[in-house]
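Review session, final week

We close the course with one last complete record, chosen because it touches almost every idea we covered. It is YoaR-like putative peptidoglycan binding domain-containing protein, a protein from Nocardioides glacieisoli with 584 residues. Go through it on your own first, then we will talk.
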Amino acid sequence: MAKNPRSTSEQPRDKAGASVVVWLLLGLVVLFGGLYVAAHYIAGDKVPRNTTVSGVRIGGHPQAEAAQRLEAGLADKVNRDIATTVEGQPVAIAPAQAGLGVDYEASVAEAGGEESWDPVRLWNYFTGGDAFEAEVVVDDTAFETYLTGLDEQYGATARDGAVSFDGARVVTKKARTGAALDPSDTLAVLRTAFLEDEPGEVALEMTDVVPAIDASDVEETLDTFASPAVAAPVTLSFEGSNVKVFPADYTAALSLVPTDGELVPTLDAAKLTEVVGAKVTSGAPVDATVTLVNGTPQVVPAKPGVTFDEQQLEAGFLETVAKPQGERTLTLAAKVAQPAFTTKDARALKIREQVSTFTTYFPYAEYRNINLGRAAELIDGTVLKPGETFSLNGTVGERTVANGFTKGYVISDGILIQDLGGGVSQIATTTFNAMFFAGLEDVEHKPHSFYIDRYPIGREATVAWGAVDLQFRNDTPYGILIDASVTPSTPSTSGSATVTMYSTKYWDITTTAGERYNLTKAKVRRIDDLTCHANEGYGGFDIDVVRYFTPVNGNTETRDDEVFSTTYTPSDTVICTNPDAVDE
């Protein structure tokens, strides 16, 4: 059988041809792969070649460099003022002050400057590139602040209508429509003009700002509440009797508060209770106290009171006050008001006996009679509970004409001058000594700067309003009743001031005074003033006074001896050199 000659001779040639094709394909793959890698390398993170952002060419540059080129290219636009008009007036707006700016990095990223193996991205880099607008960013806080400034300068603040009371009179304030730039519209106009090539002048339009409380709200409030509120008194039916409360009294407790576009009647319950409480005085509770009756302390019992229900008053008053005449009655339930300090509390003070008394004397001077008498009147009857602190300034008050005081001599800078309340220190000294022998705790006292011989040496005190006080604390377990009185002086007799303290005796007090030491001499002062008080001086010294405590009546406490050290400065001799000087 004959063989096919082709089958043997062509087989090697076919295999060789196939191998060439494979290598050719492999070569093409390598070639195109290399070209692709090279294209990726060339493109990197560069912006497509033909890209512009707000008219600035940034194509073909890496992102960071493109952002720098964009910033430089937009510098003139970004830094120029935006020409506007507000209410017809030209206003140049600096973009940065208005919070406008450009995010250069975001603008470049939006234009396609990113590294990628995506063939579409590579194709776009070499053949593409569009025109983009820069990413404008807004600092909201800066924009709002700037807009507020424009509104203040060119606009008008809206004003709410209001209704208030002046005694029995209704006072109204008219509402007023304001004008302001609309934030969203204004921002849109500025953003558009910010980076335009030729923006021209743009108009910023004011819009009406309607007040939350307008004229109709005011009228409605007048009709439904304010006018009826002052039309007639309100009658409170209480304990079978009627009490009238008039508008001039209660409108101080009324107000109309703007709330969610309405004027809402609002009641100050505390003020109203105070007003009504002053009308219902007969039913107020009375605290127990202790007073002297024929020289003996006696408890004055407490008295419960009958008063109105404050919650009922608060709940019903606003409705009642808005009703027409003939219907303006509010019935209140009565309730018992207990005193804050009961009879039992007063008896527990055990104020039963005199525990100390002290008297000082003074020469005639009418100002002394007035000032000492008034101070004693204000102190008399004071009850100190255990732990309470007495303050002479707090009890007597400021020495003024309105408070019943007159001018008299006081010590100032080592000499005598005239001032309101002169002489009150005599009451301070008398009270200090009564406290001293009652065994109470000395909190604050200041001796006179120089020694006054009608006072006990080293045991005296001065006071000055707002600067120097006499204070002591009741550190016993019993109450203290202070009795103070003044016998006026006359041209022929001395006056006297007496302070007596009543309690249950807790200490026996004795005292000693040491010898004077650190003696100092007086100086001579010549004063040329028209008002001058001549004085014969004397020296100063130091002295120590000791208070000794002996417990009595079952008192088991022990207390160390207490030393009071006092330094008296010299009382200078004063010579008045002005021939026209008047000794007041």
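Two points worth writing down before the exam:
The radius of gyration is 49 Å.
Residues 23-211 form one domain.
Good luck, everyone.
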